[in-house]
Amino acid sequence: MNTKRIAMSLLIMMMVFTTVACSTKGNNNASNTANTSNAISQNEQVNGEEVAQDEELTAEPGAKLIIWDGKDGIPFLKEIAKEFSAQYNIPIEVQEQGAPEQMQKMKTDGPAGLGADLLVLPHDNLSQAVAGGFVLPNDYFEEETKAEFQETATKAVTLNGILYGYPRNMETYALFYNKELVKEAELTSWDDIIKFSKSFNDVSKKKYGFMMSLNNLYFYYPFISGYKGSIFGDNNTNPEEIGINSSQVVEGAKYYQTMREILPMTAADLTTDVKTALFQEGKLAINLDGVWNIGNFSSLPFEVGMMPLPKFPNDENPRTFAGVKAYYVSSYSKYPNAAKLFARYVTSKEALVRNFEVSGFIPARKDMENEPSIAKNEMVSGAIRQFEYSEAMPSIPEMQTVWEPMANALDLIWNGEDVQKTLDNAVKNVKQSIETLNK
């Protein structure tokens, strides 16, 4: 009985200490908190156990963690988890679960106490995760996260003004180019791409200057953003304002339509496999594609560069969609403090550089382009330059209603149909889908 009372007293003291610490954190200056990931180095004895802590946040006694991530993130996670466990006496189990499986399992395993303490999710799952009550805000390290990570990344993992995620890596797309066929200096504008392609194309030999996915809104978005258009109002957050048939978007679509001259193919014929094969064979000079292909294009018999999308005729830099993967602390975790400490630890500058070296994930932190392992990879450096002109893909639930209507519209526009009428019809379809979604 006395033992239970002592344990309870210690637990109450721990709760009081954590509460006081969190309430006073805002009074610390940035210099004391910016390197918190390195400050998680002091241990203390609590009820006979060594417990990790930084200057203020303390892991719960007996803490142990489960982390879910997809297959590509597992090797590095296992490596860093061992180091964290050895240093801070917090056991960590890494389990392979893809993002869709994580979201599904949290509905049942979370309330049952069987779910992970930390999830790794793409940012477009955030709305669903918050609506399901699966994740906790990134409150303790909020200031550090906003100061140290790309604004695009922190906005992506923020919902309704609340920061939830601990960003890990960013993905977007840019222009891969065959350095034996074309130079970056020759591509200062989108008109340059068209001019080069006219001189390079030889359709009879399946040689093309430029290719992109023709009916996928994800890759088409620069033709919207580059003409100051948007999908939804208020920076793509207000579904009550649908902007895909605005005058700006129509202007961009008309310019897109003119590119049929240099790419005389239907959207159905220009598949990802066809485009990739032509690029690898040296028959395609400029390939608009995602950063996830950097590894695939690193061992070709010719040197490949990657550059940001050039300006449109209106002198605007087009913005690409960016995807952000991040760590999230489960709201069902019994050890949220320990989970927050690990999330901070695994997103330190040093950890993300190592993660890049192991997994190829391009860090979402600021000022990473000068890291030696990143700087020596020209394609990664090009991708980082594109991040400066990228924005988080909308994560509001209504976004799912846009993909199919826009795919159909882009098919028609590419085939020469009236742009305004086609986009007006797409808006009608989106509105109908949103009404169904909200029923």
From TrEMBL:
Cleaved signal peptide residues: 1-21
Region (Disordered): 33-55
Entry keyword Lipoprotein: yes
Keyword vocabulary terms for this entry: Cell membrane, Lipoprotein, Membrane, Signal, Sugar transport, Transport
GO molecular function terms noted in the UniProt entry: carbohydrate transmembrane transporter activity; maltose binding
Compartments where located: Cell membrane
Membrane topology: Lipid-anchor
GO terms (BP aspect): maltodextrin transmembrane transport; maltose transport
Main location: membrane
CDD domains: PBP2_Maltose_binding_like (cd13586)
Keyword hit for Transport: yes
Protein family per UniProt: Belongs to the bacterial solute-binding protein 1 family.
Name the UniProt record assigns to this protein: Maltodextrin-binding protein
